[in-house]
Amino acid sequence: RLDLHGRGQMIGVGQFVPDPFRDNARVYLFLKQARLGVKGNHEEIKFEAQMAFGGENANGSNTDLGLLDFFADIPVKALGSDTVFKIGQFRVPYSREGLTDRGAMNWSERSIMNMASYQGRDYGLALLKKKDKLTGTLGVFSAGGRDVPQRYLPEVLGVPELVARFGYNDGVDEDIYHVAGTDLDVKRTGKAAYINALFMQDTLIGHSSVLNVRTIDKNLLIDANYNPYISAGPNKTNGTASTLQRGNIWFVGGDAALRHPLGGGKALEAEAEVNWGGYDNRFGSMHIGSARVQGGYQVRPYHIGLRYAALLLDKGTNYRTGGKNFSPAVGSVIHEIAPALTWHIKEHNMKVVADLPVYLNMPVFYEKGVGAYVFAEQPGQVSLIATGGNGVARRIIVEGRMMFQFLF
Questions:
Q1: Neighbour tally for 325: CB within 10 Å
Q2: Rounded Cα–Cα distance for residues 155 and 404 (Å)
Q3: Where are the alpha helices (DSSP H) in 41-168?
Q4: Is 70 exceeded by the pLDDT of residue 62?
Q5: Which of 68, 207, 300, 325 could bridge to 50 as Cys pair (CB 3.0-4.6 Å)?
Q6: What percentage of the chain has pLDDT greater than the value 70?
Q7: Helices and strands: H and E segment counts in the chain
């Protein structure tokens, strides 16, 4: 059996950004997603593949590929019923928001919490087990991200990325790796709650390290623009090849979801999540914290939602060059308040999502003569503040977004 599926998303964004060089009011239009995938099975073995086209991020080390998922689920009867061995490229099982399928969300974007805790997709293997309403998974990944080309370089081996997610699910989620942000037909009270953990000791490879050369789906803790220690070095030299000082990275967190029917096509939904992560090597250590809480009221075919998210950067964040600190209140919290309204014209197969995120204490990077860049959308632009005449300030940013989605 083989089922073909696809998803298209068009998004329009209006934004107000205090800008000394360009217009304060901005308008954008993008083809946000263009996905094509297949799901199927051969006897008891299930498989899934999904490609990304359109305006989504390309992997800088292999830009001709847009492969998201490509994996097989193989039953392991020797370990009991409902035990599955997963192998290939798939979502790293950490963070409810990170695991939520973008086609089944009632906001047009994930929250700013995701900038801290997102692990993206990677290739590896995992064991998934269910027993009644308890479920869990253990996974081992490369940590290099998705679509990594074959490069046979010298290594100093560390510990691969180890990820665990365990919890309770009474039917809210299809399984740990397939999470929907809403249920359009809530018939009973449903609950889910999980704890997550991740650990890795970086591997030196060639002139760099696995984490330092990752090109896509990077959370801030492994982004050299923000983590001054991840690319620090060299600590030894062999001929002309310099190597970095490898470090350790870890995350811990928890999340929960609740859905309750009110009858007559009405329902309440709520989610909460918190994450804390850290990185250290001999040059130093830093941490990052994030949280999210959201609620929704559903009266079919409409869904009204409100989300709050917070992101706490470490005071050691790399806002500096030569010891000069360019950012005011580096360690203070960034806030997001985002109301949303979704019109399910044909359920998720055709819907319109409108949301209005308001960002408080948001870093805005200023490039002299060019304009202002908002941290939430252009985090890599932090690098420009190292140049004379450029800078950064904290601002209130208001956006209006509208997204149209169709599925087949």
A1: 11
A2: 46
A3: 96-99, 114-117
A4: no
A5: 68
A6: 92
A7: 3, 25
Q: b/e for 7-43, b at 16 or more Cβ within 10 A?
A: bbbbbbbebebebeeeeeebeeeeebbbbbbbeeeee
The torsion region of residue 171 among left (phi > 0), alpha (psi -120 to 50) and beta comes to left
Q: Using CB atoms within 10 Å of the CB of residue 55, give its burial: 0 to 12 exposed, 13 to 18 middle, 19+ buried.
A: middle
Q: How many CA atoms lie within 13 A of 280 on its CB side?
A: 8
SS3 call for 77 = helix
- Model pLDDT, residue 64: 57
Average pLDDT of the residues in 223-228: 85
Round to whole Å and give the CA distance between 384 and 29: 25
Query: pTM of the full predicted structure?
Result: 0.93
pLDDT, tens digit, 9 for 90 and up, residues 314-339: 887 765 544 455 555 567 899 999 99
What's at 11, amino acid-wise?
Answer: I
**Alpha carbons 129 and 73: distance in angstroms, whole number:** 12
Average pLDDT over residues 242-260: 91
User: Residue 103: left (phi > 0), alpha (psi -120 to 50), or beta?
Assistant: alpha
